[in-house]
Design goal:
Length: 145
């Protein structure tokens, strides 16, 4: 098990503990980062690119995006799009289904995490539960790849 896989489990377990102890505002953060750690694991060990490659490719992408007037990405958006493309092109029977589920759920979870971390709105039990539900959809898919 890589350190990233281990961190993923720790973040997810922490999110569950926070939810069970009614500390809902912090749940989405742990649920989301459990998935981010697995995406980085795929980048390094399945796609076989380095952290340096990630930074270079992100800078190159953003340079081209800025030149064409397109939206730039942070590292999380860049990872989500690249891991999604990797899943979609993978030669498994359910790869396209996995991609659709992953893509839909990860963007929802990212939005929940952003709202929980930065918004002045209430993050309640249902939001917390939904964050865990989304992570439970995403993580088994990422673990296949």
């Amino acid at each position: 098990m890589s350190n990233l896989q281990n961190k993923s489990e720790i973040f997810y377990d922490a999110a569950k503990l926070l939810h069970d102890n009614n500390m809902h505002a912090a749940v989405a953060h742990g649920a989301y980062f459990s998935c981010v750690q697995l995406m980085k694991h795929i980048w390094l060990y399945s796609i076989r690119k380095s952290e340096n490659d990630l930074n270079k490719e992100l800078r190159h992408f953003n340079k081209n995006a800025m030149a064409s007037g397109s939206k730039t990405f942070g590292v999380h958006e860049f990872l989500i799009n690249n891991i999604g493309s990797f899943i979609k092109s993978f030669p498994l029977v359910n790869a396209r289904n996995d991609f659709r589920t992953f893509n839909n759920a990860i963007w929802q979870l990212k939005d929940l995490r952003t709202n929980a971390d930065y918004s002045d709105s209430q993050f309640d039990d249902m939001d917390s539960f939904y964050s865990l539900t989304l992570a439970n959809k995403i993580m088994p898919i990422l673990k296949k790849y």
